[in-house]
Structures are given as structure tokens and as C-alpha cells.
Amino acid sequence: MMQLVIVPTYNERDNLGELLEGIxxxxxxxxxxxxxxxxPDGTGKLASYLMNTRYKGSLFLIERTGKLGxxxxxxAGFKWALERKYQYIFExxxxxxxxxxxxxxxxxxxxxxxxxxxxxxxxxGGVRNWSLLRRLISRGGSLYSRFILGxxxxxxxxxxxxxxxxxxxxxxLAEIKSNGYSFQIEMTYRAFLKGFRIKEVPIVFEERLTGxxxxxxxxxxxxxxxxxxxxxxxxxxxxGTDTAQAAPPLP
Length: 251
Description:
This protein is 42% helix and 17% strand. It is an alpha/beta fold. The protein has a single domain, classed as Alpha-Beta Complex (Spore Coat Polysaccharide Biosynthesis Protein SpsA, Chain A). This is Nucleotide-diphospho-sugar transferases.
């Protein structure tokens, strides 16, 4: 079974080693792709070293020229994964906020659906070390998106996910321009409109202990605007003019 975790990084040197240890402990045969945006702290250099020594054959690296954004990092990773025939493709943060111990439950869930969403807002899920303001922004963003887009899911802004390759093949990735929170919302929305089966599994999100959060008011504002753009474009997206077909049957 070909399975890959994509980890976008920018200044995550202090977290990368622990994250990789956690991933391989949770799922021994997992492959990991680090997409590094030329981190000044040497994250890319550390990833390259580990790729050629400790994790040779299971760790891979894309080094980009600068800080190009979360959405484009995942799109680069998706393209890399599809070219290499991976069946299950994960999104996962590089700051230890997504605990690798949840990976086996994702792999179990994806046997019966096409897209698994790691959810903080279903039974068994939650957050740790967040301020009240951060909780309100995150929960409010999901509620806002659910209402505008008519989606039934509790957590739309999270970035811990697992896609079957068929989902990524049938979404026109070249059309996706959003980043940050809005990127996560858009990917789920497009998959939902194509009729793919989507399931939420509980995760506990842990606020990063080192480094700085990538969250900003610009990212939040982009999400507010992008949700309306997606809603207004619903008819075209649902009609499948971006080359998507009906969801394939499970094997």
C-alpha cells in the first residue's frame, strides 16, 4: 500500500526530527515528503541530511526558492505524489500540532471513504493550549463556511487530512489559487461537490510549543472572501467543468 504524508515546512528545524520519529513510529511503512520553502533556520538542510542517512528510501524533499505559501506547497506535493502512484496522500503540519498517533485511525477510515478530515469538533476531538480568541476564530471560521457553502462537516479549516488519489486526480488542481485556511476549505468543498465520500475522525490539536504560528489576519480575511467566491461558483464546480468525474467505487 503506497501512502505518503506531505509536510510543508518553513523554519521547523526544531520540530522536524521529533515529527518524523512520531510518523514512523505510528506507521512504519509510511513515506514522507517535506516541502521546504527555503527556511532560513536550515530545515531543508536537516531534511536533506535525514533523507540521505537515517530515513533513506522513505523520506523525500522538495526544496523551493522562497516562502510561496501553504497552498502551493501542498499542490506541489500532490503533483509529486500522483506522479509516483501513491494511493493515500496525507496533509500534515510540520509544527507538531498534528499528532502522528492519529495516522492509523485515518488509514482505517479511508478504507470506507475517499477523504478523511481530522476534526477538532466531533466527539473525541479537541484543542490544547489555545487562547479563547483562537478558539473563537477557528470554530467561527468553520461555522461560517458551513453556513455559506452548505457543508455538513464540523471542522473545515483543519489541515490534517487523507485523500485517496482519485480525489486529487479528479479535482483540477491547477484551478486552486487559495492558501491557508481557505485552501483547506476549498479542497473539501470541491471534493464534496464531486460526490466523494468524506468522513471526519477526531483529533486533538496541540498548539505549537516552539517557533511562531503561521496564522495571520491576512490569511483569515482571505478565507472570508474565498468562501463567497466558491459559493458563487458552485454551479460550475458541481457541473464538473474542471474535468472531474463521478466518484469511483471502492476497491
